[in-house]
Amino acid sequence: xxxxxxxxxxxxxxxxxxxxxxxxxxxxMQGQHQENLKDLEKFGFAVLPNTTYxxxxxxxxxxxxxxxxxxxxxxxxxxxxxxLMDDNEQLIEEQRxxxxxxxxxxxxxxxxxxxxxxxEHFAPLTIAEEIKAxxxxxxxxxxDMPDARRFNKLQVNAMSASVGNEYKKFIxxxxxxxxxxxxxxxxxxxxxxxxxxxGDGIEIAANSPREERAITSYFRExxxxxxxxxxKTDLETVVKPCQTALYxxxxxxxxxx
Length: 257
Hints:
By secondary structure, the protein is an all-alpha fold.
């Protein structure tokens, strides 16, 4: 009764204040307000799935569990906001997991790079690098020997190339790999005598610096085309005794264990 009494007082007052025309405007505004509320509700339901209890796809294509906010008394707009907040939480978690995977992969890459550096440091030389080291060592030994001063630079190069060639044949036939120390001891023990023998033979076989350079290329490349037939015959004649003596000494070689 009080409610109707108050309403009976309020309505006449509104009419008195606004007049008859104002009262109808007020009624129209109230009706428009109700329509606006209905439109807002329709918008809320339009942006939500048909049922909030079905699985949906997240922003990254992941399956999302049914929304739990359907059981709450939320307005459609609040439900949309809640859904966006849930999506954001899922994206943050996925980003955290991806970052963890990235960190793990970075650690694996660093480990592999370190393993590669160690292998490259301790791995044996390639055959080309090893032969180059042999030639360098025997050349250094010859330079320090007074008896080798009778040979010119081209002859020393040819002698060193011949030593490198015989070393390559030896480790290939024996199928062995020598460490740096073992290789140095091997060259020092077996190769100077052979190098001197070859140097003396080159002085006999070669008649010019051009032929001495050709002999060096022949020892390094084992290519008969760099030698003339006469030079090849002469070289084989003087080098064969040197090889025979070397092979006889190498027959007693035992690789250190």
